[in-house]
């Protein structure tokens, strides 16, 4: 049976297009067919692919995996296609930090070899399901890998919200926004907002206020089975709900957003063994001079 992979590329950079052509050549020589997205095909040489597909829920159906060339934004875009088809994602970072990527550009050849030889593992990452409503009427239902954020819709205004966990109010305050993140998302927007780093194999939800005007506005870590709700003050200003920085919907005053552990995880390809600690130190260039390690005795 012919093997097939969906290639997703950040084609906005010419250097990425050249990398994609090399990737296509390597896979083709190993008998692996590539399909590409309709919006990206015009930027790629036709010799790079065997099939062009629309970027919808069926784009990755029947593929072995989704191979991503770009940064975290490109991987999040690819994740929407992969999750719908239940196939794993392998990211090669051609951007900056690239926390979600499994390999950096200098390990591209190695990553291709792992795929050709099928020498890789797949792990599941927790997602969140999100429902926005007003007066019981659903405005939007979506999901996120990193976080759901409810933010003020106008820079000069304050967003007044009430945070609720498992049907009980926790705190009300004015803020720029509130994030509900997964452990995977703890190194993304939630980290920038002052949230804790949570190891990805921990099952939990993070609630992280952004620039809150309150004495009690610390990040919360709650059960993965919890229901976290954010209520926008009905007498206040409208807000914006954003999922992974990619999908957004306007929220009127009085809207309610509920976030729960996702029903469908995202599958990520892993090529190397090693603790998350090493990845954290590497990606953030953390100082570890002076570390001696556990005693040999």
Automatic annotation (TrEMBL):
<dbReference type="InterPro" id="IPR002504">
    <property type="entry name" value="NADK"/>
</dbReference>
<protein>
    <recommendedName>
        <fullName>NAD kinase</fullName>
        <ecNumber>2.7.1.23</ecNumber>
    </recommendedName>
</protein>
<dbReference type="InterPro" id="IPR017437">
    <property type="entry name" value="ATP-NAD_kinase_PpnK-typ_C"/>
</dbReference>
<dbReference type="GO" id="GO:0003951">
    <property type="term" value="F:NAD+ kinase activity"/>
</dbReference>
<keyword id="KW-0547">Nucleotide-binding</keyword>
<keyword id="KW-0418">Kinase</keyword>
<dbReference type="Pfam" id="PF01513">
    <property type="entry name" value="NAD_kinase"/>
</dbReference>
<feature type="binding site">
    <location>
        <position position="176"/>
    </location>
    <ligand>
        <name>NAD(+)</name>
    </ligand>
</feature>
<feature type="binding site">
    <location>
        <begin position="72"/>
        <end position="73"/>
    </location>
    <ligand>
        <name>NAD(+)</name>
    </ligand>
</feature>
<keyword id="KW-0520">NAD</keyword>
<comment type="similarity">
    <text>Belongs to the NAD kinase family.</text>
</comment>
<feature type="binding site">
    <location>
        <position position="77"/>
    </location>
    <ligand>
        <name>NAD(+)</name>
    </ligand>
</feature>
<keyword id="KW-0808">Transferase</keyword>
<dbReference type="GO" id="GO:0005524">
    <property type="term" value="F:ATP binding"/>
</dbReference>
<dbReference type="GO" id="GO:0005737">
    <property type="term" value="C:cytoplasm"/>
</dbReference>
<feature type="binding site">
    <location>
        <position position="157"/>
    </location>
    <ligand>
        <name>NAD(+)</name>
    </ligand>
</feature>
<dbReference type="Pfam" id="PF20143">
    <property type="entry name" value="NAD_kinase_C"/>
</dbReference>
<keyword id="KW-0521">NADP</keyword>
<keyword id="KW-0067">ATP-binding</keyword>
<keyword id="KW-0963">Cytoplasm</keyword>
<dbReference type="GO" id="GO:0006741">
    <property type="term" value="P:NADP+ biosynthetic process"/>
</dbReference>
<dbReference type="InterPro" id="IPR017438">
    <property type="entry name" value="ATP-NAD_kinase_N"/>
</dbReference>
<dbReference type="GO" id="GO:0051287">
    <property type="term" value="F:NAD binding"/>
</dbReference>
<dbReference type="GO" id="GO:0046872">
    <property type="term" value="F:metal ion binding"/>
</dbReference>
<dbReference type="GO" id="GO:0019674">
    <property type="term" value="P:NAD+ metabolic process"/>
</dbReference>
<feature type="binding site">
    <location>
        <begin position="187"/>
        <end position="192"/>
    </location>
    <ligand>
        <name>NAD(+)</name>
    </ligand>
</feature>
<feature type="binding site">
    <location>
        <begin position="146"/>
        <end position="147"/>
    </location>
    <ligand>
        <name>NAD(+)</name>
    </ligand>
</feature>
<dbReference type="InterPro" id="IPR016064">
    <property type="entry name" value="NAD/diacylglycerol_kinase_sf"/>
</dbReference>
<comment type="function">
    <text>Involved in the regulation of the intracellular balance of NAD and NADP, and is a key enzyme in the biosynthesis of NADP. Catalyzes specifically the phosphorylation on 2'-hydroxyl of the adenosine moiety of NAD to yield NADP.</text>
</comment>
<feature type="active site" description="Proton acceptor">
    <location>
        <position position="72"/>
    </location>
</feature>
């Amino acid at each position: 049976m012919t093997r097939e992979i969906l290639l997703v590329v950040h084609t906005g950079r010419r250097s990425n297009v050249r990398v994609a052509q090399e990737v296509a050549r390597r896979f083709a020589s190993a008998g692996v067919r590539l399909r590409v997205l309709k919006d990206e095909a015009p930027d790629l040489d036709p010799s790079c692919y065997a099939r062009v597909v629309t970027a919808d829920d069926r784009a990755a159906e029947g593929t072995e995996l989704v191979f991503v060339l770009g940064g975290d934004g490109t991987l999040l875009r690819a994740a929407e296609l992969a999750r719908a088809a239940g196939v794993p994602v392998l990211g090669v970072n051609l951007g900056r930090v690239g926390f979600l990527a499994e390999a950096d550009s200098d390990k591209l050849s190695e990553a291709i070899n792992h795929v050709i030889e099928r020498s890789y593992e797949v792990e599941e990452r927790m997602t969140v399901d999100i429902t926005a409503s007003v007066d019981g009427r659903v405005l939007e239902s979506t999901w996120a890998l990193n976080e759901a954020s409810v933010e003020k819709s106008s820079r000069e205004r304050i967003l007044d919200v009430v945070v609720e966990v498992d049907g009980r109010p926790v705190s009300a305050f004015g803020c720029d926004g509130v994030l509900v993140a997964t452990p995977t998302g703890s190194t993304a927007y939630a980290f920038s907002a002052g949230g804790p780093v949570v190891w990805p194999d921990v099952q939990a939800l993070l609630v992280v206020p952004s620039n809150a005007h309150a004495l009690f506005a610390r990040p919360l870590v709650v059960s993965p089975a919890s229901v976290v709700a954010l209520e926008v003050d009905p007498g206040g200003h409208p807000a914006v709900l954003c999922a992974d920085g990619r999908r957004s919907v306007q929220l009127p005053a009085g809207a309610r957003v509920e976030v729960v552990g996702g029903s469908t995880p995202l599958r990520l390809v892993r090529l190397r063994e090693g603790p998350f600690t090493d990845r954290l130190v590497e990606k953030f260039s953390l100082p570890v001079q002076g570390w001696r390690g556990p005693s040999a005795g």
